Amino acid sequence: MDAFSYKKEVFMTNHDLAELIFPNITKTIDDYEKQYPERNLGEGVKVTRFAPSPTGFIHIGNLLSTVIDYVLAKNSNGIFYLRNEDTDKAREKENAVDLIMKTLSHYDLFPDEYQIEEEIHGEYGPYIQSKRKEIYHTFIKYLIEIGRAYPCFCTKEILEETRNSQETDKVRTGYYGNYAFCRNLTIEEQIQRIKRGDPYVIRFKSLGDFEKKFIFNDLVKGKIELPMNDQDVPIMKSDNQLPTYHFAHIVDDHLMRTTHVVRGEEWLSSVPLHIELFQAFGWKVPKYIHIPLLLKKDEETGNARKISKRKDPEFSMSYYEEKGYPSLAVIEALMTIANSNYEEWHQQHPDLKFTSFPFSPKKMSTSGAYFDLEKLDHLSKNYISTLTKEEVYQGVLSWTKKYDPSFHKLLKSEKERSLAIFNIEREQKKPRKDFINWSGVKNQISYLYDSYFFEDYEKTYQDLTEEEEIEMDLLKAYIDSYQEKESESEWFEDIKNFAIHHNYAPSPKIYQEDPTLYKGHVGMICETLRHVITGKKESPNLFQILKIIGKEGLIKRFEFFQKQNLK
Ligand code: GLU
User: Please, what are the domains in the chain?
Assistant: First the structure.
């Protein structure tokens, strides 16, 4: 070693180290500050993001946080963007982004900014983390230069041994304080080992003291006190690689000018680390909205428990699509979890979209929120009852296209009848609330289509009760004399006259006054008629059903009934 090279080694700096690790990074963090300037948005305007990892799975908790993201952004005329957090390539599933985009459009939560492959929509992209490597490296390089990040050469074995001895000694596990072996290596040594080809990761150098409290504000939970972070976490897992989630999302949330971070409360304990990272760069910290765990009542124990991927099909978003819940009903169920006063607000403002709801994080439950399928059913029923017959038709049509092609075909070929069926007790002050979701519709209405009725009749038909035992000849006479009427009152007048003519009382009340005077009453004729032509003891409005089936259908069904010799 000559005198010159010795001198050079002695005066090695963080800058030399940073250059050695990132020789090709020529941009500075200021370049990126300029490239992604503060968004020119007014006071109170919010920028939110959905930042899923592309694991090919979206759960109900993801959607809850996305709905909140969306409402916060839209309610303030802000921006909601989608960021693909694909730094963990091992977990990535094919078509995962497709699934995410499809889910967002299905629920009408389409992002303002996003990226699909090379196609970037928005000024703050790329929105795919794996396409931002150079950006991250610039920011890691900066941290190395200012002495807040360093290469760590500890092998897996060393880390494992350390962990074991920490466990035996009953001390906190992790890479911190005296256990952060590589934090005090000299620059010369770091450089020498890198040059020698020793594998390394880059760690963040924490300045925190675990004994001290770290206080921050969460908009849902209020003031939170946690121990300060003192772990030197890896921010880049190996040479020239993508950074870890902790690091990448900090850089992105800053550069994409995110104002509110909405995510599951499992991230709460990492906030001291995240804020320390923001502060290492001197950046403003976004506001945090950590949403509580979704709970359900355990069917066996009756106790509250976390909704689980393993036990509960409703955990996965595919469940709602398969069941055919209208997307807005699912959104409303989530809005009700977000703020329990949502339903009341919605009743008061039936014409406003959910995005106008003044969501308040403070009003969210802090301890866990119930996601109740009964509640969803209730909201869904109400919602479907407000739709027009065409909207219901379209809803069932699009669901059946994927899940029940033969019924789909029938709906298309019998459009007029289908619309009439969906209109039963619909256009009225208190519309019928019979449909919960699209998958249940066929069972509820198939008897109104001849093809299903004649096929399923024996299966669905229940015996006539004694009360219904009215002469089949009488029913035949009614059907022969049946004439379609415009209004229900006209029709009922008609059947009452028919009843009187055949010595049946025109109302149950009159019949009850002295049953010996009559063979029965008009209600009995109606019930038997209903039963014979629908196969069911209960149905929606008989007058409307008769109109749909028509005289010809009525005769066909009656004859079929007799032929089957069911009675
Ligand atoms: N990629 C993280 C996840 O899927 C995002 C967490 C966050 O929103 O910061 O859980």
Answer: 133-291 (3.40.50.620), 389-454 (no CATH), 456-564 (1.10.10.350)
